[in-house]
Design brief:
Length: 353
């Protein structure tokens, strides 16, 4: 499997996903600003993956700071955190990664500055390692909802490329294949940047998982014909009530599933759940350059001067979601807030397959 991001010889090495599937190339980031640029320009994308990138970017930025003590070091690191956080507003994982790194530092004030710098590198590597294990756990819980012979539709890319490896939405798919289930995947192309066409189809084909690419507006017709059994998508931020922000086009897909009686699952690591906001209406929604709509890569497809909007995410209300699959199990959206409680008996609220 192609590595999305890694720490190599004091640098951050990330796969430039903007060039896929035509070319596999990597960007070597020597400073945190290059990491931030990679997040902004979609060299790396997907909520878990940009959380990892944020952590590695912070660790990279820390290495060039000259400070005599903790207070000087921590203060000098704040612009690094701020710059990285400003790159993508919708995905909560950047903020999660920043907070994790900050909390690590404040818990180790007694260490020297060189020790703190080394600690940040170690933590960033640990976040990458943890993410892969989390994805496999999501796969284990989600695979139970997939039957032999099922056709699964997914939207955008919530696969290995959107994470440290293995994938969130593709986690259950990979696990089902590993356990011998014969399944097929339908991948929405995902306009305007075509993550489904360029990324999901590419990585599933590399792993020899049967996949068929469709235009975004074809899903309803296939459901009407009875050719889809379930949907699994990822999430960039999930509110406490179970509302989910994901790539634009997820909401209409969920509505179609509801209309046709098709289960709609969301694969969400706990790091993508924002328990601080009550509902999806409080999730900041990124709006990107309209050129991504009027152009396909370097080719213009719309009249010059036409107005265009490029809303990057939409919010799917909890009522359309069958279950949210996390590394701790699958849960009804209405029960999601209970995961905050200490000593909660998860068996009582897990969704049974």
């Amino acid at each position: 499997m192609v590595k999305t991001i890694e720490w190599v010889h004091g640098r951050v090495r990330m796969l430039d996903q903007s060039k896929l599937p035509l070319k596999v190339s990597y960007v070597i980031c020597k400073d945190y600003r290059k990491v931030a640029e990679g997040i902004k320009k979609l060299w790396i994308r997907g909520a878990p993956a940009i959380g990892i990138a944020a952590a590695m970017g912070a660790a990279l930025g820390a290495q060039k700071i000259k400070a005599k003590n903790f207070d000087e070091f921590f203060k000098a690191l704040q612009p690094v955190f701020k710059d990285i956080l400003s790159t993508r507003p919708t995905a909560v994982n950047i903020e999660w990664a920043n907070n994790r790194m900050k909390n690590l530092l404040t818990a180790n004030k007694n260490l020297t500055v060189p020790q703190l710098k080394a600690l940040l590198i170690k933590e960033a590597k640990e976040i990458l390692k943890e993410d892969i294990e989390i994805n496999k756990a999501i796969g284990k819980w989600g695979e139970r909802f997939i039957k032999n012979g099922d056709v699964i539709i997914t939207h955008c890319n919530a696969g290995a490329l959107a994470t440290g490896g293995y994938g969130t939405a593709t986690g259950p798919i990979r696990m089902a294949v590993q356990r011998g289930k014969k399944i097929k995947v339908i991948a929405d192309e995902t306009r305007p940047v075509l993550q489904g066409a360029r990324l999901t189809a590419w990585e599933l084909m590399k792993d020899k998982i049967p996949v068929t690419l469709i235009p975004d507006n074809t899903a309803g017709a296939l459901m009407q014909r009875g050719e889809i059994n379930l949907a699994i998508v990822g999430t960039d931020r999930t509110a406490r009530n179970g509302d989910v922000a994901n790539k634009i086009g997820t909401y209409p897909l969920a509505v179609l599933c509801k209309e046709h009686g098709i289960p709609f699952y969301v694969a969400a690591p706990l790091s993508s759940i924002d328990f601080s906001i009550p509902s999806g209406k409080f999730i900041p929604i990124e709006e990107r350059d309209s050129k991504e709509v009027t152009n396909v890569f370097s080719c213009r497809i719309a009249p010059h001067g036409v107005k265009a909007r490029n809303i990057a995410f939409d919010v799917t209300p909890a009522k359309y979601i069958t279950a949210i699959i996390t590394e701790k199990g699958a849960f009804k959206p209405k029960d999601l807030y209970k995961l905050q409680k200490n000593n909660i008996n998860l068996d009582k609220i897990r969704v049974k397959h």
